Amino acid sequence: MALLALIDRTETLSKQILALVNLNALLLREVALAQPEPLQYFARLEAEIGGLGEAIAMGTRKFSEVHVSSQAITEVFEQVLRQGSSLIENAQEFTKS
After folding, report:
1. pLDDT tier at 84 (50, 70, 90 boundaries)?
2. pLDDT, averaged across the chain
3. pLDDT on residue 13
4. Of 79, 97, 68, 81, whose CA–CA distance to 28 is shortest?
5. The pTM is what?
6. Is residue 48 within 8 Å of residue 75, measured between CB atoms?
């Protein structure tokens, strides 16, 4: 029974993380598209966010009593950035046509 509860909780957390990834990608798109040069602005944000993700991953490794994979944290940040970039590129292609 405990295993089923753990599986259910893991599925719930996965859905919540996916929702946050999607929300953040949409927010990045909106912020970038409000700028005169969306792709250049996003490239700058991408560098800053990537650095922030690495810092969080390193801090988690150093100060957390619970082992959290820094690679997993980095993957979440990378997924947000990939989705954000794709959304911006698609929006720009849509406005050109």
Report:
1. very high
2. 85
3. 87
4. 81
5. 0.74
6. no
Query: In sequence order, which residues have a C-beta less than 8 Å from that of residue 62 and are 6 or more positions away?
Result: none
Three-state helix/strand/coil letters over the chain: CHHHHHHHHHHHHHHHHHHHHHHHHHHHHHHHHCCCCHHHHHHHHHHHHHHHHHHHHHHHHHHCCCCCCHHHHHHHHHHHHHHHHHHHHHHHHHHHC
pLDDT > 70? residue 63: no
Residue spans per domain, the chain: 18-96
Q: How far is CA 19 from CA 7, 79, 80, in A?
A: 18, 12, 11
Handedness of CA 14, 86, 33, 40 (dihedral sign): positive
Residue 81: CA atoms inside 13 Å, Cβ hemisphere, count? 19
Query: In angstroms, what CA-CA distances link 55 with 2, 9, 27, 28, 96?
Result: 34, 27, 21, 20, 37
